[in-house]
């Protein structure tokens, strides 16, 4: 809670956070065009002046929001990793959780920004480094949670394919609730992935043994 | 070529086609906001009046363009299916071609429309039946080209997953050329898909034998 006795820098941080969260919510619900600095400031209950003090341009606000929310999701993911079961159930849990990220509001907000950036060179230049970072961090997280050896090229590609699948499932959920079909796909792929990774591990062991 | 001696209805059809193609090109290159009836008419070299005779609203023009271009791609796919090799090479060729559709201009145009429809209830109502149709037709096409039995639930889910993967790979190609990485993913996926479909077939035969 923000109170009158809170130090100034904590208040400033809380204001910044409200703006970032309002930006993601606005992008996910109202879309790219409707997400202006004015709309976000009003949604967050922050004055226009204070908003522009934190984020001089709309592009600054939007890229900061995506970056911050992605980091927050990954921090959550790091904490959740301690509770993973072993074996096939682990692979299923990891694929399920990955797919959850790609169907949540941060993905839906990112999709608005990516699509706008396709036809906007300035935005594209800002988004490309984020895309690179998100891809690398999500991949590393998936490898750690699956507990596999990413130095093996086939393992690397199957983890990449799992992230691509998750992105595709995210896109299929944009206009309607696709959760029932998605659940079946996640289980089917997790089964195939689990035996492919194990088979691959066996082949590597046999080749080096 | 449109000539003065061409019958009126052929000229009308040619005009319509030019408008549909200009709409897809404009959506894919300039994005949703820039794709107005005026911009498309100018790009196609068609008068504003003639454009509105064919397509009374922007929404009519855009949904007709997606629908027509999708049907055209699928007609091409039907003709290409005669040249498929057997075995794993067939699975690879089918996955590769599917992924090609999802990285081409029709997908890039559709992505603009889907993303806009996420925050636009009227557009969403128009796009949902298209999404349903595109999904069904692409699935049937993939099943035919792979030569598998879609009545088996696991086969059905793996074909669905392949379409979801293709969609995810399409999205990864929107801001930068992802073709090198994509080629590796397609080959890895096709290998896993091919052995899973074969294994599945063997299990069904054993269970019913």
UniProtKB/TrEMBL annotation, chains A, B:
<feature type="DNA-binding region" description="H-T-H motif">
    <location>
        <begin position="36"/>
        <end position="55"/>
    </location>
</feature>
<dbReference type="InterPro" id="IPR001647">
    <property type="entry name" value="HTH_TetR"/>
</dbReference>
<dbReference type="Pfam" id="PF00440">
    <property type="entry name" value="TetR_N"/>
</dbReference>
<protein>
    <submittedName>
        <fullName>TetR/AcrR family transcriptional regulator</fullName>
    </submittedName>
</protein>
<dbReference type="InterPro" id="IPR050109">
    <property type="entry name" value="HTH-type_TetR-like_transc_reg"/>
</dbReference>
<keyword id="KW-0238">DNA-binding</keyword>
<feature type="domain" description="HTH tetR-type">
    <location>
        <begin position="13"/>
        <end position="73"/>
    </location>
</feature>
<dbReference type="InterPro" id="IPR009057">
    <property type="entry name" value="Homeodomain-like_sf"/>
</dbReference>
């Amino acid at each position: 809670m923000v109170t009158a006795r809170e130090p100034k820098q904590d208040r400033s941080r809380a204001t910044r956070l409200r703006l970032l969260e309002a930006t993601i919510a606005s992008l996910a619900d109202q879309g790219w065009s409707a997400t202006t600095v004015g709309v976000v400031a009003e949604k967050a209950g922050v004055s226009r002046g204070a908003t522009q003090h934190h984020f001089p341009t709309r592009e600054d606000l939007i890229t900061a929001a995506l970056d911050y929310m992605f980091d927050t999701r990954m921090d959550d993911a790091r904490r959740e990793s301690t509770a993973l079961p072993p074996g096939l159930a682990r692979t299923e849990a990891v694929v399920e959780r990955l797919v959850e990220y790609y169907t949540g509001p941060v993905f839906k907000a990112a999709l608005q920004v990516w699509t706008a950036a396709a036809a906007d060179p300035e935005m594209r230049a800002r988004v490309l480094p984020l895309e690179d970072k998100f891809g690398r961090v999500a991949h590393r997280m998936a490898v750690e949670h699956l507990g596999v050896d990413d130095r093996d090229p086939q393992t690397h590609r199957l983890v990449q394919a799992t992230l691509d699948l998750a992105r595709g499932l995210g896109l299929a959920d944009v206009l309607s609730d696709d959760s029932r079909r998605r659940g079946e796909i996640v289980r089917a792929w997790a089964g195939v992935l689990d035996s492919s990774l194990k088979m691959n591990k066996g082949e590597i062991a046999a080749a080096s043994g």
